[in-house]
Amino acid sequence: FGKIGKGEDTPGLAVYDPGFLNTASTRSAVTFIDGDKGILEYRGYPIEQLAENSTFLEVAYLLIHGELPTQEQHEKWVHEITFHTFVHENLKSQLQGFRYDAHPMGMLLSSVGALSTFYPEARNIHDPKVRHDQVVRLIAKMPTLGAWSFRHAQGKPYVYPDNDLSYTENFLSMLFKMSEQKYNPDPRLAKALEVLFILHADHEQNCSTNAVRAVGSSQVDPYSAVSSGVAALYGPLHGGANEAVLKMLKRIGTPDKIPAFIEGVKKGDEKLMGFGHRVYKNFDPRATIIKKAVDDVFEVTGVNPLLEIAQELERIALEDEYFISRKLYPNVDFYSGLIYEALKFPPEMFTVLFAIPRTAGWLAQWLELVDDKEQKIARPKQIYTGDRQLEFVPAAKRW
Ligand code: ACO
């Protein structure tokens, strides 16, 4: 607790909780996490079952609507998403105006924000039909914007969506198609991406979701709210850990260097990136699922020498008292960067690959916010630490 304001005439006491470590900012029925038991559920369904048996678009429907679709609802949903994948040509011109080396996350966040100007009706957030249309547009267009940001950095022409393909196949086509011929991605790669998208679709009140809710609480349109989520994800403390894992593995270089590296970690020289989690203290359920996807991807792309280092590092750490006593286990980022590299993504794209599926979670949480009659504009209190009631002396007399 802290006193609000300095001096005698202060309005009272407030809870001081930087980063909301112990303060619930909202009530939510979207995602459940039990960090001690390693449980992650979307709308009550365990992540393991969804990753094994569902598709990203079905999971997106579940997050958004709160229940699984009937066959008819599913067909309509997939049809709607598929036929909103194109973006306005003027938005393409906007993307083309970026520097050749523009970071794809910077391009993504500004183009998502720019979408609001193409759909001015989106400001009418109290109309359920309007809300639905923007949700569909955002989920549909994120892969297009993400893929075009990637092609831009490579100096390659943008590839238009291929609506005969599934959500992840189409994304791979827009990323990697090199000729006029139809691009047919390896189904094992499309499936691995599908699993990664499901794992990243939501994670309750993380930094970017909190940003979407805070900005959304001003009743702004969903494009502007989601662009604030992309901005939050851009930060290295949120979306950047898998890139750090990759750099660490490259630095270690060969398996024989692992014991010395582990000793350095134990001495406190550095952290073992991709290990440990603020919420999951026994295991990260997403890490277990991702390990299966690793095998599928490397079957197609051939084994990467970094995988051998990662596996050996994990084996040694899991048997070491330092990591056991501190409950440090691999998190989702330990293997995701390896998969992305095997798929030939440059590290700057890793966070884009996070933002695309997380859009479904952001929107589910945004819809919940808009429907919540008790929701107030996000406006936390502060504990004021500055001066009070100073006498202002004009510049002419001060200098
Ligand atoms: N390597 C070595 N030691 C570690 C690691 C690690 N990766 N993580 C925690 N520790 C140690 C700490 O030094 C501390 O040791 P001490 O008790 O001797 O001081 C102890 O374990 C407890 O750690 P905390 O920092 O209290 O744990 P916290 O919950 O605050 O941190 C975090 C969690 C930030 C994820 C941390 O484990 C970490 O930095 N991991 C590496 C980065 C990483 O992989 N981030 C991705 C997280 S997943 C995601 O964002 C999608």
UniProtKB/TrEMBL annotation:
Biochemical pathway: Carbohydrate metabolism; tricarboxylic acid cycle; isocitrate from oxaloacetate: step 1/2
- Give the reaction(s) catalysed: oxaloacetate + acetyl-CoA + H2O = citrate + CoA + H(+)
Molecular function as annotated in GO: citrate synthase activity
List the Pfam families: Citrate_synt
Instruction: Give the Gene3D superfamilies listed for this entry.
Output: Citrate Synthase, domain 1 (1.10.580.10), Cytochrome P450-Terp, domain 2 (1.10.230.10)
* Keyword line: Acyltransferase, Transferase, Tricarboxylic acid cycle
List, alphabetically, the SUPFAM superfamilies matched.
Citrate synthase (SSF48256)
What InterPro entries has UniProt attached to this entry?
Answer: Citrate_synth-like_lrg_a-sub, Citrate_synth-like_sm_a-sub, Citrate_synthase, Citrate_synthase_AS, Citrate_synthase_bac-typ, Citrate_synthase_sf, Citrate_synthase_typ-I
- Which family is this sequence assigned to? Belongs to the citrate synthase family.
Protein name in UniProt: Citrate synthase
